[in-house]
Amino acid sequence: MAYDDQNIFAKILRGEIPCEKVHETDHTLAFNDIARARPVHVLVIPKGAYVSSDDFSAKASDAEIADFWRTVGDVARMKGVADSGYRLIANTGADGHQEVPHFHMHVLGGATAGPMLKKRDG
Ligand code: AMP
Fold first, then answer.
1. Could you give the CA distance from residue 122 to residue 59 in angstroms, rounded to a whole number?
2. What is the pLDDT of residues 33-85, one digit of tens each?
3. Which residue's CA is minimally distant from atom 15 of ligand 1?
4. Considering only CA atoms, which residue is closest to atom 13 of ligand 1?
5. Does the Cβ of 98 fall within 6 Å of ligand 1?
6. In this structure, are residues 102 and 7 in contact, taking their beta carbons and an 8 Å threshold?
7. For a pocket test of ligand 1, which of 8, 33, 40 has the largest count of ligand atoms closer than 8 A to its C-beta?
8. Is the CB of 82 under 6 A from ligand 1?
9. Which CATH number fits domain 8-109: 3.30.1490.20, 3.30.428.10, 2.60.120.620, 3.90.190.20?
10. Is 106 considered catalytic here?
């Protein structure tokens, strides 16, 4: 899938629309999700143009990948959920129900995430 530079996170990265910034590094931006699903709900995104997790891991530099994962951990500590626990979710593609086609990790915490997805036939 080709990267669509009109997606909402690309606009946030270009400063065309605002976000509630939580943390920023050379390669990564973290901001609050606009429709919070838990008391802590932060989106961590690479600044580069990557559609999905697999696109990111295939094309990003080692520095970008290391920076991304360090930022995910930093955000969990900064938001005070590293000890209480949190859930990381990266919805991917149609079956993963990804709405914004720029790779992002949801960091959800501050209340129980509930059980994993239920088993389903088919
Ligand atoms: P996903 O379904 O994994 O692609 O999730 C996209 C997420 O982006 C959803 O949780 C939305 O609430 C969130 N979102 C959409 N627009 C914005 C925005 N302008 N600022 C912050 N979060 C947003």
1. 32
2. 999 999 999 999 999 999 999 999 999 999 999 999 999 999 999 999 999 99
3. 34
4. 33
5. yes
6. yes
7. 33
8. no
9. 3.30.428.10
10. no
Q: Catalytic pick from 27, 41, 102, 104?
A: 104
- The mean per-residue pLDDT over the stretch 80-91 comes to 98
0.85 surpassed by pTM = yes
Please tell me the distance between residue 33's alpha carbon and the centre of ligand 1 in angstroms. 6
